[in-house]
Amino acid sequence: MDLPVIPVTNGVLPRPDQGSVKGVFLDRATARLLEKLQGRSPVLLLPFLLQKERLYPVGVAVRTSDMWQEEVFIGERKQRLTALFAQVQGAGRFRTRRFSHRASVLVAEGVEELILDELRPHHPCVDGAGWQPLGGQTEMKSYDDLIVTLYGVDYEGRKPVTLQANLGGLLTPERAHTVEHAIIRALNQYGMCSPRTLAQAIDEESVELRTSVEAGYRLQSPQVFGVTTTGTCGNPLTQLAHFYLSQEVVKGIEAGESLLGSVEQAQRKVMSRLSEELELTTQSTWRVMQGLKKGMLHDDTPLDAHALHKVLGRFPVSPWH
């Protein structure tokens, strides 16, 4: 089966089993395609990875249930345009291995349906369709009780949802914390977390966290510790950095310093205070690794394929399972 493709840049996919979402389609070619089909035939929504400038070949097929025109304002100059809005319903998860262009329409050829429950014994995945992960928590009670919880909202009713697994006996707390962040990253980017996308997300998350530590030390800017493209990591280093920084800035202003002077002075004081209280080295050779592992409680050691499968196998397929 071949299906026309609509790239999705914001990661929003409806639940494959008749889940519904509303979207705006500014691209005229996409709007014409939906207007032509009128919900009679499905189209395939595929995540478009902006940083990699490519389509992820696994997505959700949808049928249009309603369409209407509305005026929208876009860009810095608030340009007014008439855009097509549509409500679409999920009609299954599908994967494609090749694409073609037909009459200016991108087509996924030979699409195959994916039933994630059936794949779990050999290829466990977490489904990100129908909900948006917003954050997470890793809590260790004992060696065998290491709970990773992801928090989010569903797209239809904006109701809170959670996804939870016990990774006790499988990972260290530092590795579990890294996995927590990586699953959120993979779900937001790909709409799905598979062993392969989890491995990629672990690597990307670790690189960005290391970069934030290096930049924080080099620029004497503790406020950048733990900041990545997916948000700010909640850990002792980042939490203390922001808490102490706000304290010192207020003290400087109350002492008659300018705002800029207070911030610069606060940054220097906080860097020294963090290194002392968390017992972090300031030596350039070790400070990034120690800041990541001890200050942020992350372990960037890659997981092998067997461990990746076991980790994802402990999570349910979705918050609704």
Number of domains: 2
Total helical segments: 8
Q: State the helicity in percent bands.
A: 25-40%
Q: Oligomerization state of this entry?
A: single chain
Structural class: alpha+beta
Compute the separation of the termini in Å.
Answer: 29 Å
The tally of beta strands, per DSSP, is 16
Form type: globular
β-strand percent reads 25-35%
Average pLDDT number = 88
Element string (H = helix, E = strand): EEHEEEEEEEHEEEEHEHEEHHHH
Rg: 23 Å
> Biggest β-sheet, characterized?
9 strands, mixed
Uncertain runs with pLDDT below 50, 5 residues or more?
none
What would you note in describing this structure?
With 321 residues, the protein is α+β, with helices and mostly antiparallel strands. The chain has two domains: 3-114, Roll (Archaeosine Trna-guanine Transglycosylase, Chain: A, domain 4), CATH 2.30.130; 125-321, no CATH class. The chain is built from eight helices and 16 strands. Strands 1, 2, 3, 4, 5, 6, 7, 8 and 9 form a nine-stranded mixed beta sheet that branches. The longest helix has 24 residues, at 195-218. It is globular and about 65 Å long.
